[in-house]
Amino acid sequence: MSESAYDKLVAHARETALLTSTQDLLFWDEETYLPPAAGDYRAEQVAYLAKLVHARRTDPQVGEWLGECEADGLDKADSVEAADVREMRRDFNKRTKLPPKLVEELSRTASLAQKAWRDARQADDFASFQPHLEKMIGLKRQEAEALGYDESPYDALLNDYEPGETVANLTKVLGALRAELAPLVEAIVASGKQPPVRVLERDYKIAAQRTFGKRVAEAIGFDFNSGRLDVTAHPFCGGAGPQDVRLTTRYDAQEFSSAFYSILHEAGHGLYEQGLPADRYGLPTGEAVSLGIHESQSRMWENLVGRSHAFWKHWFGPLGEQFPAAIKGVELDDFYFAINEARPSLIRVEADEATYNLHIIVRFELEQALLAGDLPVADLPAAWNEKYQQYLGITPPNDADGVLQDVHWSCGLIGYFPTYTLGNLYASQMFDAAHDALGDLDEQFAQGEFQPLRDWLRTHVHQHGRRYGAPQLAERVTGKPLSHEPLMAHLRAKYGSLYGAA
Amino acid sequence: MSESAYDKLVAHARETALLTSTQDLLFWDEETYLPPAAGDYRAEQVAYLAKLVHARRTDPQVGEWLGECEADGLDKADSVEAADVREMRRDFNKRTKLPPKLVEELSRTASLAQKAWRDARQADDFASFQPHLEKMIGLKRQEAEALGYDESPYDALLNDYEPGETVANLTKVLGALRAELAPLVEAIVASGKQPPVRVLERDYKIAAQRTFGKRVAEAIGFDFNSGRLDVTAHPFCGGAGPQDVRLTTRYDAQEFSSAFYSILHEAGHGLYEQGLPADRYGLPTGEAVSLGIHESQSRMWENLVGRSHAFWKHWFGPLGEQFPAAIKGVELDDFYFAINEARPSLIRVEADEATYNLHIIVRFELEQALLAGDLPVADLPAAWNEKYQQYLGITPPNDADGVLQDVHWSCGLIGYFPTYTLGNLYASQMFDAAHDALGDLDEQFAQGEFQPLRDWLRTHVHQHGRRYGAPQLAERVTGKPLSHEPLMAHLRAKYGSLYGAA
């Protein structure tokens, strides 16, 4: 029997994955162990592999094989193979639709804009970054036009990270979230309560933090036989193949929660990666479906599990054994309050579970307005500060800690921010569904039982890869369309009891 | 101006180096940090990159560019460019001369033979390995014929590792070495003296071993800004680019010298790699010239420097500060004697400076006889044991600790072993030349001054890459052809004073 067009596509994609997984290793190594002087050559290695990968992915032969599959109706069935063909087509079109000149211009502009952004933040000088951002916004409009969209140019960009999501839907859901979240945060502030956060700022030896973090990651189901935990400056979950998932974190010997929750967060991503079907590695049905779904897995383990009272009912004892001096005399309820501090603050990456999504909503609203041309880049800092005052009740004292704090826009990442909040929304919605299916999760956590939840996620989320779109997958799992209600219910319950602020 | 054939060759080779350096990273990672379950996929990544690299290196276009350069006489000059063309031609011919079917057969046989070797060593059962070795020897004969040679088929294989060396020359030099070395070892044994080796087998904390090893590596000139030190099972010096040289070692918390001398040995290799001209990375003139010259650098720092009395005159104080409990009450002279213990033993990789080369000479003589057909594989174990008795005065009690101890022959590495002894010979010969040029090296070492030697090696050896052949380079550096005399003089002086055995 001769090899079918589908078989050829699969073989080609699997071979490409040998290169992309090698790129992943180059990246992981760069962020963990690369000697300082080796950065320039590493950039050359990365660029060369990117060239090889791009050539393979835009090879006209791929388009022909896809055409053959489609002529045979292979993309129409309700099967993993059909899903592969449909998703490969989407990827191929996306990659071949952009004029090479635009791709090159985007890449050059991003490179210059990132440098300009770094300098501008350093000098607290938005004006020097402004022309770069203006140029980038213009190019992103061109990109949206080239990619095509039904309703809004923003959709075209959003779909790069969150296939199937629309700005119309997000505006509705995030609007509803904001309307209920801002008053909750206000009530938290008004309560005047202060959790005893100093218990987290004691002597926590790094080696012991690592041991404890690995132990918890293992307990929630992360497999260190197919993974690792290393140190980096900006924590991420990487890897270099189907059985090779690498978590990273950073430690502060005087602070417990930062490294610990990084580990839990990245382990949540890692569980997703380890739950993807290894035998489909390199194919769409062996890949994560969207950034929002990915983030839902990390946020669920970090916040809904790892900041729950039930979780610490089990782990507070082992914690005390690991850090006897630091935990001596600390009560479980005080510790629980400390790791759930909520407080409006300026910096997104340091924000807590309650305020985080308001940071995202600010960015989501502003980048839409920028792309639509409703907000000139020159007016961005004022608009930023106004929204921070309105939603979070604080005004940044300078642009470095305000509009210049994130790297994203300088890289051309427009439509990326909302995936963080989508992650929180999906996490709560899926967690409720898991609760309905598995019984009292709190009871299980308090007993140290995390496998039922992990296995449920594996069955209902991880193993499907990109078989379903992100909104479709979430609706299959939870039986409901995206809503702000599960997240708000969770936040109200938690902060109501902690701050008396429901 | 249009790009010349030489320019095209250079650009092509540099692009290939982006892939080979990535292969190097895959290898380093596999030996250091790869999760246990990720081995199978890593093998696929390695095989795929090897395929890409092989296709580039045997691309007929390379042969055409080389032809153009040669037609212009570009290979004739006394310049780095001419050396590049000559060496690229040699590499290209070597890679294109072997019939693909033979390459495939060698690869398959090696894979099966390595597995069979592992099982045979485990079971102490040479007979089960014998057919694999017979097949391999037959294939290596075919390889030698395909590669071509002037005098002996062995030369063709030897030249893969030691370009320009001949079996005739090695037979002469190694024969002379054996004739003087065996009696020296006999005299050491006859002296009945025992160094106090137990001082090395105390409590040496691994973290402190690492700190001390890095400190010494840095002091001899290894640049950790362009390098690293990690842990592995079988120490090696690897890396992933021109500014990225990675040492590895393994630690035993109850033994000092094994990890320390691994670090010094690999740092010697590392100094060579860091001394190659970075701007010619990927070109022959940016590469190490031969295994023997490479080994001369590691052996010089490990043995001639690191096991000298002068070296410890400087470092014994810091050692005592690093390991106060272990070194308490130990005299410098006793420590010096302990790290220079000489004693005939069965296992090559555990052998000391005095006996090591006898292990190599056994293998060199036997593999020649195997290839020439003078020794049937069935008779190899008996021949092995006889030579061990004759040269080292001991007979292996079984084949596992005798003829089955090394992996090399199962991989098809015939002609490789002598490069270890070449390293020791070149090291002594170059060290004498450095001594003549730099004045009393012992005096410098005792003051902690290692930069003059490193810089001298950089100027006279490292920076030339493959500009000269190995024998030519050594003769340029030392003014003399290869000889056993400097090494014998060094060993006689050291062991004469330690054992009274000159």
What does this structure look like?
The structure is a homodimer of 502-residue chains. Chain A is mainly alpha-helical and 502 residues long. Helix content of chain A is 65%, strand content 3%. In chain A, strands 1-3-2 form a 3-stranded mixed beta sheet. In chain A, β2 and β3 form a beta hairpin. In chain A, α5 (100-123) packs antiparallel against α6, α8 (167-191) packs parallel to α22 and α15 runs antiparallel to α16. The longest helix of chain A is centred in the N-terminal third of the chain and has 28 residues, at 5-32. Chain A is globular and about 70 Å long. The model of chain A has no long low-confidence stretch (mean pLDDT 96). Chains A and B meet through α1, α2, β1 and β3 of A and α1, α2, β1 and β3 of B.
Summarize the structure.
Two copies of one chain form a homodimer. The first copy, chain A, is mainly alpha-helical and 502 residues long.
Q: What's the pLDDT, averaged over the residues of chain A? A: 96
Largest sheet of chain A: 3 strands, mixed
What characteristic shape of chain A results from the CA principal axes? Answer: globular
Low-confidence stretches of chain A: none
Helix content of chain A: 55-70%
The sequence of SSEs of chain A as H and E is HHHHHHHHHEEEHHHHHHHHHHHHH
Oligomeric grouping of the chains:
homodimer
Biggest interface between chains: A-B, 36 and 36 residues
Radius of gyration of chain A: 23 Å
Q: Report the β-strand fraction of chain A as a percent range.
A: under 5%
What is the topology, as strand order, of the major beta sheet of chain A? 1-3-2
Number of strands of chain A: 3
**First-to-last CA distance of chain A:** 67 Å
Structural class of chain A: mainly alpha
Number of helices of chain A: 22
